[in-house]
Design a protein that fits this description.
The complex is a heterodimer of chains A (338) and B (408). With 338 residues, chain A is mostly helical. Chain A is built from 15 helices and four strands. In chain A, α3 crosses α5 (84-102) and α12 (262-269) packs across α13. Residues 211-216 of chain A have low confidence and may be disordered. Chain B has four domains: 3-94 and 173-198 and 312-355, DNA primase, PRIM domain (Alpha-Beta Complex); 105-137, no CATH class; 227-306, no CATH class; 356-408, Ribosomal Protein L9, domain 1 (3-Layer(aba) Sandwich), CATH 3.40.5. Chain B has helices at residues 3-18, 51-61, 105-108, 142-162, 186-189, 193-203, 232-247, 250-257, 261-269, 271-279, 291-306, 312-316, 349-352, 392-400; strands spanning 32-36, 39-46, 65-69, 71-73, 86-89, 91-96, 110-113, 119-121, 134-137, 169-173, 178-183, 321-323, 338-339, 360-365, 372-374, 377-379, 387-391, 404-406. The chains are: A mainly alpha (338), B alpha+beta (408).
């Protein structure tokens, strides 16, 4: 096995090259080495806690190989745990690290990786019009960021032209989708040894991080009094779904108004797959109005409707005009005079 | 059954006995829903094996409305929704005259306050006197249907030129106030709900980030995409801006660009400089402090003028049911005719979709009826409780919308 292939497979453990290496080593689930399961657990924990995963293994073939083998093992462990929010975080970690690596790859390698992901493209040498891709293929990457929206693309006759930067971003999104949708794997024939590992991992990876901030919330905020629209956004954020900018803004401005502190809000936003503390902190502080800046009021029902975030056209909410009105009436019901 | 309803039913039955309706593609996998007099959907979860079964049902049961699912299901008659086992769905868009603001509405629409009884022309949500909810009385005329048709044609342009969905586009009149555009091709069938949302956002210009499209008014040098290379919304915005800069008078330019008339006049004298700037990818930074605001406003005006007003929710709902083409609309008695693409421009729904005879029928109006047009003939306006003798198709039109009753 050559070193270059191993290094490539470690950078892109979802690639055909990596799968080939796994097949050649004859990975047997009945008998996975401790070194490999340990790496797999590290991967899962790092992704669940949204920490950086950087194994620092240089050129050691054996260590590289363990990393490559750990990837499918980690997916099996996750499939036993069976929590989609963990699939999402796991996929996101590898998509992010691939995004960084892809930026320094040659054009040919980018082309190969695209082909490996089943993406059909027309290449040009020009970085501004680097790749041409079919609209349906582009849409199948299921992105959520506004700048990736179809409306912001150079679309004509069902074809989209992407610059090199845009293409790399698209590839990393396609990688996310590929890893995310490859789970759950079939877990019928899984040996008990892996199930035991998965169970203890599940406790660490899942319950800890989620219960931790539910406890933090117990203060003045009553999440069960949220109106349906906010409840939906809140649940999505907690489950690690990738909310759009508008959705995040709406949620943050509501939570600020409901009296939640910046730190608590950041703790919640940490669940976002592409969480960036610096940016989130800045934005939430702007919304909260700290540092002499303006305070953004949360959206009214009419605004929510225009953002298409209103749930069932308000039929669950009674006669309210503002999500805050709903929240206040349920969180702090006034006692009726006797 | 009331005599009016009885009469309509017998007329609808005559129609279905004389006209076979063509079955939608893969009819066996579609869910159907029917409506009764005054109610668009009274029963859902029906299924028909083939065209014979469908036409037999129409002839015998004579529903006032019939709709079918855009979705294909393994078990279309099962309940609840997820027991149907969704397979895929056609892509369907709707345009309704109600959603467009046209001048003619001041003529034929009216409102009445539910609380204080105030009333007026046009349609408004809340009473101008007391702010309570209003009841709206909406009619259509050739003019507002024509506007709706224009939107439909623009949509077809987007579908063909941007999405490359050239095959399988079918258009039909809804039988009342709008048009339905069905896209029936393999590519469209496979679209996920997310992908459909993206298409809607594209059509309605939702989520456009100016800078991402290459319109930069933040850097020291303002820039825009080069017109020959522009694609998608870039291209639409640039052509619109070029058109406005070339042809607008100062008042129009001031409005679109959010600037004073005096400044607009000055810009018009610099037309050729501005246009040649755009041709080489630059947005002209005229002296003074207004350049950034002007370009931003012009771009926003372009998006506003070019976006399609499509109802987002109905277009991404994979489970919705929609009028079956060629059937009768129970609120007008007009047929939901299919329109060949090449005939859309000259298509006149209020003439070509007449489904009944010109034999005279006596009816008594209930409330006031504004002037309306059918079969190239003008009727009304009529007062309340007036006995009138009008052709059968016009009588059915009024009876179906509950604006009149059969006269004794």
């Amino acid at each position: 096995m050559n070193l270059e292939d191993l290094q490539f497979a470690q950078r892109y453990p979802f690639s055909g090259t990596a799968r080939k290496i796994v097949a050649e080593t004859g990975l047997n689930l009945q008998d996975v080495s401790e070194a490999v399961t340990e790496r797999a657990q590290k991967m899962i924990l790092a992704s669940a806690k949204q920490q950086k995963y950087d194994p620092q293994i240089g050129n050691y073939e054996e260590l590289l190989q363990n990393e490559v083998l750990a990837f499918p093992v980690a997916k099996i462990l996750l499939s036993i745990i069976a929590k989609p929010e963990l699939y999402s975080k796991f996929a996101n970690m590898f998509s992010k690290s691939a995004f960084v690596s892809l930026q320094s790859e040659s054009d040919e390698t980018l082309c190969d990786i695209a082909k490996d992901l089943g993406i059909i493209i027309k290449f040009s040498g020009n970085p501004e019009e680097f790749a041409e891709i079919g609209m349906l293929q582009y849409l199948s990457a299921d992105f959520r960021e506004d700048f990736m929206k179809l409306a912001n693309q150079r679309l004509e006759k069902g074809r989209i032209i992407l610059s090199k930067n845009e293409f790399v971003r698209f590839l990393s999104q396609a990688i996310y989708k590929k890893i995310f949708s490859s789970m759950p794997a079939d877990t019928k024939q899984i040996p008990n040894s892996l199930k035991t590992i998965a169970n203890s991992l599940s406790k660490q990876a899942f319950s800890e991080s989620f219960q931790a901030f539910n406890a933090k919330l117990s203060g003045n905020i009553k999440a069960d009094a949220f109106p349906p629209c906010i409840s939906e956004l809140y649940a999505k954020m907690l489950s690690g779904a990738n909310l759009s900018h508008t959705e995040r803004f709406t949620l943050a401005s509501f939570l600020v108004s409901a009296g939640m502190g910046t730190e608590q809000i950041i703790a919640i936003f940490k669940n976002a797959p592409n969480f960036n503390e610096k940016i989130s902190r800045y934005q939430i502080e702007r919304i909260a109005g700290s540092g002499n800046k303006t305070n953004y009021a949360p959206a009214s029902c009419a605004k929510m409707k225009s953002y298409k975030l209103c749930i069932r056209n308000g039929e669950l909410c009674g006669n309210v005009k503002h999500p805050m009105q709903f929240y206040r009436s349920r969180a702090f019901p006034r006692r009726k005079a006797q | 059954m009331q005599p009016t309803e009885q009469f309509l039913r017998s007329k609808f039955q005559q129609y279905y006995r004389a006209h076979a309706v063509s079955a939608p593609l893969k009819i066996g996998q579609r869910e159907f829903g029917i409506g009764a007099f005054g109610k668009k959907i009274s029963m859902r979860h029906l299924a028909f094996a083939d065209s014979n079964e469908l036409n037999g049902f129409l002839r015998n049961e004579v529903p006032f409305y019939i709709s079918y699912s855009c979705a294909y299901y393994k078990y279309p008659e099962m309940q609840p929704m997820n027991a149907k086992h969704f397979l895929q769905a056609d892509l369907v868009y709707e345009f309704d005259a109600d959603d467009l603001q046209t001048d003619c509405k001041q003529g034929h629409d009216s409102w009445k306050c539910v609380k204080c009884g105030a009333s007026g022309k046009g349609t408004i949500e809340n009473c101008t006197k007391c702010g309570a909810h209003t009841l709206k009385e909406e009619w259509v005329c050739g003019k507002c249907l024509n506007e709706t048709k224009k939107q439909s044609l623009r949509l077809i342009g987007f579908l063909q030129d941007d999405f490359d969905f050239s095959d399988g586009i079918e258009v039909n009149y809804s039988g009342s106030k709008g048009f339905h555009i069905h896209v029936n091709n393999e590519k469209a069938l496979q679209l996920s709900q997310n992908a459909r949302t993206e298409l809607i956002d594209y059509l309605s210009g939702n989520g456009i980030i100016q800078k991402n499209l290459g319109f930069d008014t933040e850097s020291r040098m303002f820039s825009c995409p080069i017109p020959e290379k522009a694609k998608g919304w870039q291209k639409k915005i640039i052509s619109w801006m070029l058109g406005k800069i070339e042809n607008s008078d100062s008042e129009e330019l001031a409005l679109y660009g959010g600037i004073s008339n005096a400044l607009a006049k000055k810009l018009i004298t610099m037309r050729s400089t501005i246009i040649s700037g755009i041709s080489s990818g630059m947005l002209y930074q005229f002296p003074g402090s207004k350049a950034e605001a002007f370009w931003n406003s012009l771009i926003a005006s372009a998006i506003d003028a070019l976006k399609l007003g499509i109802d987002r929710q109905t277009s991404i709902d994979l489970h919705k049911i929609i009028r079956l083409p060629e059937t009768l609309h129970g609120g007008t008695g007009l047929a939901a005719k299919k329109i060949p693409l090449e005939k859309i421009v000259e298509f006149d729904a209020l003439k070509e979709c007449i489904a009944f005879s010109g034999d005279e029928v006596k009816v008594r109006t209930i409330a006031e009826i504004p002037e309306f047009e059918l079969n190239a003939r003008k009727f009304g306006k009529f007062g309340a409780n007036e006995e009138i003798k009008i052709p059968e198709y016009a009588a059915i039109y009024l009876l179906a919308r509950n604006a009149a009753q059969l006269a004794e």
